[in-house]
Amino acid sequence: MDIVLSYVQGIIEVLGSIALALVFSRVRIKWVKTTLTAAVIAAVMIGIRNLPVVFGIHMVAGIIMTFIFIISVTTADKSRAFIAVFASFLVLGVIEYSISWMLFRLNLLHIEDVGEVRSLWMLEGYIQAVLMNIIAVVLQIFLRPVYDWKNDNGT
User: Fold this and answer.
1) Quick one: which of 21, 38, 61, 133 has the most CB atoms within 10 Å?
2) How many Cβ atoms from other residues are within 10 Å of residue 16's Cβ?
3) In 10 A of CB 62, how many CB atoms?
């Protein structure tokens, strides 16, 4: 059951990252396409995270996959998309750090207990994932789309 909850949280988190990267790239968010892509990227990231490789390599894979997704299905500039993806993951990192810091300061979670209090750690992930999506929706109002999605024939 933990893997299912982790996967759902990963989908929402990756969805927020992709949506925010699209907003920063000045592309209108198409929620269905973005959600399907987020599900695939989240599955790959969870698979990589569970491999015996260097910690954090799943984030590098997520950044690369998000960048490839944006440049392949939108007309956004590659340089703008590259910066937008990094900015999106930076926002995710800031939100994650801020929520963790708040939970530690409020004595709701102790750094020594992170592995044992999985439910609270998972709740933190859901909060940051929802915040990412809210930020993307709100910023979409202010950062009007300039670029569009490619047609089925790639133009």
Assistant:
1) 21
2) 26
3) 25
